[in-house]
C-alpha cells in the first residue's frame, strides 16, 4: 500500500506541516504533502499508524503488513516523522476516546501551532453512537471490532464477546463484520434487528443471502 504514489522524492522543501491523526485521511494527506515537498510530522495516539484500517477494519480486508509497508515508505523515502502514542488536543477540550489507553505523551495544540506552517487535523470519528451506554453486555460495533483487532495484533489478551446468543442492531457494513466475527467465534443464535424492510437494508442482498445461509435470523 502506497500513500505517496506516482511521485518522486522532491528536491526542494517548501515548509513544514503537522498532521494530527495517522488514519486513512491523515496518511493520504501526508503522502500528498510529502510529494509536494513539505516536511511532515505526524502525531498519532495509537502505537501504529493506520487508524481504523489497522484497529477496526478486519485484517482479511486490509492487512496490517501492507499498512506498515506504506508508513515505512513515507518515513524512509520522504523523511516523514511519526510521533506515536502522542495525543494532541486543545487546552481544556481533552476527552476520553478509544485508544487513549496507549497514550504516553499529551501535547496541547496551542503549544505547537507556531512550530508549523500549517496543521491538518484528521483525527477521525472515535466516538460511536451508543444508545445503551453502561448497560451490561451491550457494546457498539466499533467497540467490538476494535477490541478484537487489539487481540489479533497482540495488544490485548481479552477475547470480547464470546457467548451463545446475540442480537445486532443495524444492517450496515460494520454490523456485517460483527456478525461474521460472531459466527467465527461460535455463537449459536444471532439475530439482526432492523426497523425497515429487507429490501431497504444497507448490507444489500449479497450479504443478506450469505448470512441467511449461516442461519443468521
UniProtKB/TrEMBL annotation:
One matching Pfam family: Pyr_redox_2
Gene Ontology molecular functions: oxidoreductase activity
All residue ranges annotated as the FAD/NAD(P)-binding domain in the record: 16-184
Name the record gives this protein: Glutamate synthase
Organism: Ignisphaera aggregans
Amino acid at each position: 500500500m502506497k500513500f505517496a504514489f506516482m511521485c518522486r522524492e522532491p528536491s526542494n522543501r517548501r515548509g513544514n506541516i503537522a498532521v494530527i491523526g495517522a488514519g486513512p485521511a491523515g496518511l493520504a494527506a501526508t503522502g500528498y504533502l510529502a510529494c509536494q515537498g513539505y516536511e511532515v510530522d505526524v502525531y498519532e495516539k495509537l502505537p501504529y499508524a493506520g487508524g481504523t484500517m489497522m484497529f477496526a477494519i478486519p485484517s482479511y480486508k486490509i492487512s496490517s503488513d501492507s499498512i506498515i509497508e506504506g508508513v515505512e515508505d513515507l518515513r524512509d523515502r520522504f523523511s516523514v516523522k511519526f510521533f506515536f502514542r502522542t495525543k494532541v488536543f486543545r487546552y481544556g477540550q481533552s476527552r476520553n476516546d478509544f485508544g487513549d489507553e496507549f497514550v504516553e505523551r499529551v501535547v496541547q495544540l496551542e503549544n505547537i501551532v507556531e512550530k508549523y506552517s500549517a496543521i491538518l487535523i484528521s483525527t477521525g470519528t472515535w466516538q460511536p453512537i451508543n444508545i445503551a451506554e453502561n448497560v451490561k453486555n451491550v457494546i457498539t460495533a466499533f467497540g467490538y471490532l476494535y477490541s478484537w483487532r487489539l487481540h489479533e495484533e497482540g495488544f490485548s489478551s481479552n477475547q470480547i464477546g464470546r457467548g451463545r446468543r446475540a442480537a445486532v442492531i443495524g444492517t450496515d457494513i460494520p454490523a456485517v463484520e460483527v456478525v461474521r466475527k460472531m459466527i467465527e467465534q461460535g455463537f449459536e443464535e444471532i439475530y439482526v434487528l432492523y426497523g425497515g424492510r429487507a429490501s431497504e437494508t444497507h448490507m444489500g442482498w449479497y450479504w443478506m443471502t450469505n448470512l441467511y445461509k449461516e442461519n443468521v435470523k
